[in-house]
Amino acid sequence: MVVRPTAVWRANVARDAANVAAGTLRPEDANAAILWSDDMIRETDKLLEWFEADVAGLVEHRWEPATDAEILEVVERTVVALNAANDSFEEIGYETDEREQLREYIERVLMEARIDPGALARRNGMLDDDITAEWRRW
Fold first, then answer.
1. Treating both helix axes as pointing N-terminal to C-terminal, what angle do 5-22 and 96-112 enclose, rounded to 10 degrees?
2. What is the three-state SS of 93-124?
3. What CA–CA distance (Å, rounded) separates 74 from 52?
4. By Cβ atoms counted within 10 A, which residue in 61, 62, 68, 105 is the most buried?
5. Are 35 and 92 in contact (CB under 8 A)?
């Protein structure tokens, strides 16, 4: 099972809180809860859960493999939803590390479902084998 970026973000917030409680981190230096608010984690987690379910629907109990169009529709729907979520987070949203984690997560979920994202991107003329780039604003 692919680890969601939200699990990493949640762990970072918990680590900061534990370090503040232990007195090893000053409260003003605890940035994780600012970078990854509860709302941001919760909304992103919900979208990633939907993505996982959509990908499972592409490969489970099917007589024929999913088409590129079907796979790309799932990726597009997820990326567009992540764009909207990112916009709603106002000043703090997906920054460089989060963007890479989300892109990598999408690719790994597809690979776990035996869908090759690089080959999919190349077959569909996408640059740099990045299947999220066409729709991504984060």
1. 130
2. CCCHHHHHHHHHHHHHHHHHCCCCHHHHHHHC
3. 10
4. 105
5. yes
Reported as a single tens digit per residue, the pLDDT across 28-69 is 999 998 889 999 999 999 999 999 999 999 998 888 989 999
Closest CA to 6 of 56, 50, 65: 50
Residue 42 structure tokens: 């919760």
Q: pLDDT tier at 102 (50, 70, 90 boundaries)?
A: very high
The token pair at 17 is 């809180």
Sign for the pseudo-dihedral over CA of 48, 101, 95, 15 = positive
The 10s digit of each residue's pLDDT in 4-35 is: 999 999 999 999 999 999 999 999 999 998 88
Q: What is the rounded distance in angstroms from the CA atom of residue 41 to the CA atom of residue 48?
A: 10
DSSP string of 25-71, one letter each residue: S-GGG--HHHHS-HHHHHHHHHHHHHHHHHHHHHHTT-SSPPPHHHH
Quick one: how far is CA 27 from the chain centroid? Answer: 28
